UniProtKB/TrEMBL annotation:
Belongs to the AHA1 family. Residues 23-121 form the Activator of Hsp90 ATPase homologue 1/2-like C-terminal domain. CDD domains: SRPBCC_CalC_Aha1-like_6. This is SRPBCC family protein.
Amino acid sequence: MNENLTLHPDGRTTLRMQRRLPHPPAKVWRAITEPQHLAHWFPAEVTIDGDRIGYGEGPDGRITEMNPPHVFAHTWQDDELRWEIHPDGEGSILTLTHTFPDRHGAASFASGWHTCILALLASLDGRSTAPYATVQPADFARIHEDYIAILGLDPVAAADDTAVRLERQLARPADEIWHLLHGGDATPGTPPPAAFTAPGVQPGPVTRTETGKLLEYDTPGGSVRWELAQGTGQGARLVITHSGADTSTVHAWRVHVAEVAATVAG
């Protein structure tokens, strides 16, 4: 599979994924546009009524292009999905472009679509398919971390002479991450657990904690704030803000965030 990201001036991001399927375009077209076939691999319960497309919950989307058996495009909340099918010998080239506002969620989207396309291929082959929800967390976490590397998702969202801010989608829920990092050992007035520090950062006492959500501590020149919030897909979004820092700390935090992600992925 070929994957890449495009960042747009308006802040939106497009994920492009492509795979060759050993099935003719007409058969692939039915699999991606007919609800009875979508039920075998798509991550939501789809209904289609005219140019409206429903996903079982949340607002309906709108079909923006339908050109059988080549192009099927539709919206899903704030996202845009475009499926293109091109003949390739006796098979097809399937290209998915997914445009969304959350760049840091790209690895979660890619992991999900990777899993779905495997189920799509199994369905086309006539093999049994496992629902998206049955994928084991450890397997999904490993795929997610692979896509972080493939897509080049650097966690540094901002860095200047007064602060460093890193944002990174993780592959586990916040409560599991908090436990793995020993967040429960943090108490105001005492040093933070080692997992919440980075080489070269001199941690002062913890100033605030919220279980599974937040940990703050002082440093000689400012403060460090860890936040675990709702992320894209099955995991939490980690945001680390180190105020009073400078750009020399970026590398240390980048390496440490990669180590945390590896610990979370298991």
